[in-house]
Each structure stands twice: as structure tokens, then as C-alpha cells.
Prior knowledge:
By secondary structure, the chain is an all-alpha fold. Helices cover 57% and strands 0% of the residues. The longest helix is centred in the middle third of the chain and has 14 residues, at 22-35. It is globular, with a radius of gyration of 11 Å.
Amino acid sequence: MKMTYDDYLGQAKILAKAGHNRSDVLKALRTLYLLNDGDLNPKDELGVLIADIENGKHSKMFQTL
């Protein structure tokens, strides 16, 4: 089954809730991206999520109270 943007986002949220910072989450997502040959598919949904996190779209996910 192919994972969607929302599936990957859910995984990223789990990592963030577990206390991992933005850098750790991006590192994990980039590793997964390369293992899945995402660099061969420019429209890969995981690549889009990585770009969104890098550009601050999901910054609330990493804010602490």
C-alpha cells in the first residue's frame, strides 16, 4: 500500500509528540525518503511533506507548552 501525505504527516506527528525536535524528524523523514527512492520521483508525497516542514508549514507540531 502506498503511503499518502497524511500518512507521512501522522508519522511525523508521532515523532514530534514523542519529544523529537524538528531536526530529528526531518532527519528521519529524509532517510525514509532516500530508502524509498523518493529522489527519483520529484512529486513524491514524502518529499512534499519534507519541504513543507522545512518551510515552516507544520511549525505548530514542534511548539512546546
